[in-house]
Amino acid sequence: MTKKRIYLFIRGKVQGVFFRQAIKVVAKKNNITGWVRNLDDGRVEALLEGDSESVNTVVEWSNIGPANARVDEVKIKTKKFKNEFLSFEVLY
Question: What pTM was computed for the model?
Fold first, then answer.
């Protein structure tokens, strides 16, 4: 199975709506490792690693987000898979 590593930059009403906690649940459910954090400019950044299909599932979810979020844009940067994480964490 092909492995994938991507960065997501999510813009919209994505802070203060439990976006980070919700993406952590979705990532863990799909066996994705990495992290998610808020950025000072109001966006959320996430680093996802895992098999391609599972990463794509989390990316699709991130275009919608949790109930109180409004996602305006998701930018994706693909990087070389490193397999450097054991779990998915929320960074503060």
Answer: 0.96
